Amino acid sequence: MNNIWTLAEQHEGKLKGVSFELLHRGRLLADTLKSKLFSIVIGSGVDDSQLNELIERGADEVIVVKDPALKGFVCETYVKILERLVKEHKPHTILAAATTSGRTLMPYLAIKVNTGLTADCTDLDIEPGTGNLLQTRPAIGGNIIATIKTPDHRPNMATVRPKSMRPLEKDKSRKGTIVNLKLNPADIDGRVTITGYHVETEGFDHIEEADVVIAGGKGLKKGDNFSMLRELADKLDGSVGATRDAVDRGWISYSQQIGLSGKTISPKLYIGVGISGSVQHLAGIKTSETIVSINSDPNAQLHQLADFSIVGDLFEVVPVLTKRLKSMNTESK
Ligand SMILES: Cc1cc2nc3c(=O)[nH]c(=O)nc-3n(C[C@H](O)[C@H](O)[C@H](O)COP(=O)(O)OP(=O)(O)OC[C@H]3O[C@@H](n4cnc5c(N)ncnc54)[C@H](O)[C@@H]3O)c2cc1C
User: Fold this and answer.
1) Residues 289-305: pLDDT tens digits?
2) Cβ-contact 65, 181 below 8 angstroms
3) Does the chain have fewer CB atoms within 10 Å around its N or its C terminus?
4) Range(s) of the domain holding residue 39
5) Is the confidence at residue 34, as pLDDT, over 70?
6) 199: in domain
7) pLDDT tens-digit readout, 6-26
8) CA 246 – CA 267 distance, rounded (Å)
9) 100 and 28 in one domain?
């Protein structure tokens, strides 16, 4: 009854990284409750080595419903499978990623099992004494941080922002169980058939997926100056992001906004250019591996958090960096 479930996400038989991030969240909760952590995998083609990785990264038990009929994500079918499992096993908590599929599936499931759901959580904990899940998320446009609980219903259900926690390191010595369940044909919703899908690449710069993100703020002075960052990003095979201030001024599109009311990123390298480092912006970058700050103000908040700080005028520093990278690329050819 006290078990924690996380919903693994897969696409075309490959587990997405967020499945492992959720296990880290789930592991902390399960350890607090002294209970077990389950990973639920629904789909087709997920091989045994990936299922074992779920155990190596924190799961005690993996429940798998694998069938060619589950190749594409059909919300109604996935919910029917989950509803059946939830009613049978009665988990304490179900966590899913706040992705398109997680955000589609979880409200539907919450209604089916008659419980509440908190979307887009940034923090989770267990309330001492009651065992309620404490679900923390920004509310009222990000102006307050609210902690929400569902005291009268179970399971607790929450979606969690991708990239807001790193996965646990693989531990090959961890032991767990993999339970394969057969798809009940009655669970297939025949009203929806997926005939194919199309990946939109044109015009998109996916900062959430990028290993390197160069972000610009108000210090850039005008939208045209983002071309400097684009040039630097190209040299590092990276993407360009921005603060809300830059987005609100129309210098760059909202899809590139990083922070509390934008995207959470977790690149290997983040370079903040002309960015002060407000708490709302920092909320979106804190799991970046290496943070570099370029700011003329030595007291800028971003410098305090950064692994490397360059105190200087960005209009001098950025061209020098780009030029240096260009010459390094030429030297290495
Ligand atoms: C509800 C709410 C939600 C929000 N959500 C977000 C969010 O998701 N993301 C986000 O980013 N913000 C968000 N904000 C806004 C946030 O509070 C800050 O206003 C914003 O992050 C500041 O952006 P900035 O760093 O570009 O600008 P500023 O704070 O004005 O900083 C500009 C920096 O540029 C430096 N600079 C100026 N000229 C140069 C130069 N020539 N060379 C080098 N450095 C220079 C300055 O020293 C300064 O530090 C939110 C605010 C609210 C109230």
Assistant:
1) 999 999 999 999 999 99
2) yes
3) C
4) 4-187
5) yes
6) no
7) 999 998 899 999 999 999 999
8) 20
9) yes
Residues 180 and 224 in one domain: no
Q: What is the pLDDT of residues 47-59, one digit of tens each?
A: 999 999 999 999 9
Whichever domain contains 122, its CATH number is 3.40.50.620
Look at the chain and report how many structural domains it folds into: 2
Residues 231 and 183 in one domain: no
Q: Residue 198 falls within a domain, yes or no?
A: no
Return the closest-CA partner of residue 222 out of 320, 323, 314: 314
Task: Indicate if ligand 1 lies below 6 Å from the C-beta of 249.
Answer: no
* Residue 153, pLDDT above cutoff 90: yes
Confidence label for 144 from pLDDT (cuts 50, 70 and 90): confident
Residue listed under structure tokens 């370079």: 271
Same-domain status, 123 and 13:
yes
Give the mutation target among 208, 245, 251 for probing the ligand 1 site: most ligand atoms within 8 A of CB. 245
Q: How far is the CA of 219 from the centre of ligand 1 (A)?
A: 8
Q: Is residue 141 predicted with pLDDT exceeding 80?
A: no
| C-alpha torsion sign, points 27, 33, 34, 40 | negative
Beta bridge partners of 98: none
Phi, psi of 148 (to 5 degrees): -115, 140
**What is the percent of the chain where pLDDT is above 90?**
80
Atom of ligand 1 nearest to the CA of 143: 1
| Residues 234 and 272 both lie in one domain | yes
Ligand 1 test: best mutation among 122, 137, 244, most atoms within 8 Å of CB? 244
The verdict on residue 207 lying in a domain is no
